[in-house]
Amino acid sequence: MQVASTLAAFKPRKVIPIVPYSVKGRYRSIKTALLVIAYSVYFSLPWLTWHGNTRTGQPLLIDLHALRVNFFDLVIFPHDLIILVGILILGVVMMFMAAALYGRVFCGFFCIQTLWTDAFRWIERAVQGEAQARLRLQKQPWNVNKIARVGLTHLLWLILSFATALTFTLYFLDAPILFARTFAGTAPMAAYVTIIALTAATYIAAGLAREQICRVACPYGKFQTAMQDAHTVTVFYDRSRGERQRGRTAPKAELKDMSQRAAQGYGDCVDCGYCVNVCPTGVDIRKGFQIDCIACGLCVDACDTIMDRLQLPRGLIRFSSDAAVADNRRRINPKAWGYSAVLAGMLAFVFYTARTLTPFDASVQHQAQPLMIRLANGDIKNRYSLRITNKTSQTAEYVLRAEGLSEHALDGRGLWTVPAGKTYTQLVSVVLPEEAARNTRQVKLVLIERGHPRDAKALEISYYSGLSAKL
């Protein structure tokens, strides 16, 4: 008996799918606007052409073959790791800042899972009807009508999933070419694997798992609760107003009059359950803060709709914090100022780094064996390895000069042609007469892109003569 009871305790419960009701309101309008903007940008960006000062092509292209990222006029190479790290840190700071100040508002409005699940639910609602109709369809036996509606829903889900996966691959190669090659069967195998895997992942996550991703799989909601405090703004149910002394109850008989309800000690909440019915994760916010709440604000819209019908003030359910409710006034939150300062600093760092990126990169290294060579006429030669990376989308020519030395001091070609996105390594030598070499310890080389004298890079190199300087 004890073993049976133990096994029964670990028996998985049946997962009842959540069928949220539709609702209109300001937060639903904001979510819809963000959905339209996100889809418009995501699906159109690979097909647009950017005509900038330094490059022409897709506004965003992650070119794995050339190992570079093209973002409008900005070209990022692996050498520019610092800006990639800065962008990564900036994103992390923004997510932590959102979690600490506004709870899971990122989940409710900006998360990819939320955006795609909203689109999948829109398809489901368009084909099967509103929530009540979908619930009736789930309960009725399988027939031609049910098979047609459910089948069409899943077919449209698969089409959207495929379009999502295909568009994702277009960010890694020239979009028109890859699109044509994909349907011609000549695209790289990696593209087909990515499309299949991402199509399946999108279909499962947004069509089948839905809220279970937010409730179970997503780690963001788990650590967010550890960052929340009394100043965190999140969805809040005003219990003192909603339930007063005798709790909430339906507006029956004399309790339809709101003033009469208040006189008898009943709250403004009429226990309609609309706030629960519209929640995409099935949370009853009236029970207090819960980890499953993604702060989408739909329950706020639902409650405001009911309050408008009852001619009561809005805000029974609203975005607020425990500190604001307790003090009934807004206080300066040191944490908000701290996060804002870090965010501003990271934004300034990323912006400055992006603005100061040069169209080419160069480095020079002294040849170790031998450090110096004495020529037959007594001159001293030092050899160096010059590495030039062209970080533009066009072939460029570079000129090397030595400051403070004669034009004959540089031994080797002074003009190099480097194709777009390529790195060339050249050998150069600095040759000085014995008297000059004796008193030279550092040499300043300047690499200039031909036709763009402002884009110059100074290279400080050491010079070894093997001679003692004269006093």
Automatic annotation (TrEMBL):
<dbReference type="GO" id="GO:0046872">
    <property type="term" value="F:metal ion binding"/>
</dbReference>
<feature type="transmembrane region" description="Helical">
    <location>
        <begin position="336"/>
        <end position="354"/>
    </location>
</feature>
<keyword id="KW-0249">Electron transport</keyword>
<keyword id="KW-0411">Iron-sulfur</keyword>
<dbReference type="Pfam" id="PF11614">
    <property type="entry name" value="FixG_C"/>
</dbReference>
<dbReference type="InterPro" id="IPR013783">
    <property type="entry name" value="Ig-like_fold"/>
</dbReference>
<keyword id="KW-0004">4Fe-4S</keyword>
<dbReference type="InterPro" id="IPR014116">
    <property type="entry name" value="Cyt_c_oxidase_cbb3_FixG"/>
</dbReference>
<dbReference type="InterPro" id="IPR009051">
    <property type="entry name" value="Helical_ferredxn"/>
</dbReference>
<dbReference type="GO" id="GO:0005886">
    <property type="term" value="C:plasma membrane"/>
</dbReference>
<feature type="domain" description="4Fe-4S ferredoxin-type">
    <location>
        <begin position="260"/>
        <end position="289"/>
    </location>
</feature>
<feature type="transmembrane region" description="Helical">
    <location>
        <begin position="155"/>
        <end position="173"/>
    </location>
</feature>
<dbReference type="InterPro" id="IPR051684">
    <property type="entry name" value="Electron_Trans/Redox"/>
</dbReference>
<dbReference type="Pfam" id="PF13746">
    <property type="entry name" value="Fer4_18"/>
</dbReference>
<dbReference type="InterPro" id="IPR032879">
    <property type="entry name" value="FixG_C"/>
</dbReference>
<protein>
    <submittedName>
        <fullName>Cytochrome c oxidase accessory protein CcoG</fullName>
    </submittedName>
</protein>
<keyword id="KW-0408">Iron</keyword>
<feature type="transmembrane region" description="Helical">
    <location>
        <begin position="185"/>
        <end position="206"/>
    </location>
</feature>
<feature type="transmembrane region" description="Helical">
    <location>
        <begin position="81"/>
        <end position="102"/>
    </location>
</feature>
<keyword id="KW-0472">Membrane</keyword>
<keyword id="KW-0479">Metal-binding</keyword>
<keyword id="KW-1133">Transmembrane helix</keyword>
<keyword id="KW-0813">Transport</keyword>
<feature type="transmembrane region" description="Helical">
    <location>
        <begin position="32"/>
        <end position="50"/>
    </location>
</feature>
<keyword id="KW-0812">Transmembrane</keyword>
<dbReference type="GO" id="GO:0051539">
    <property type="term" value="F:4 iron, 4 sulfur cluster binding"/>
</dbReference>
<dbReference type="InterPro" id="IPR017896">
    <property type="entry name" value="4Fe4S_Fe-S-bd"/>
</dbReference>
<dbReference type="InterPro" id="IPR017900">
    <property type="entry name" value="4Fe4S_Fe_S_CS"/>
</dbReference>
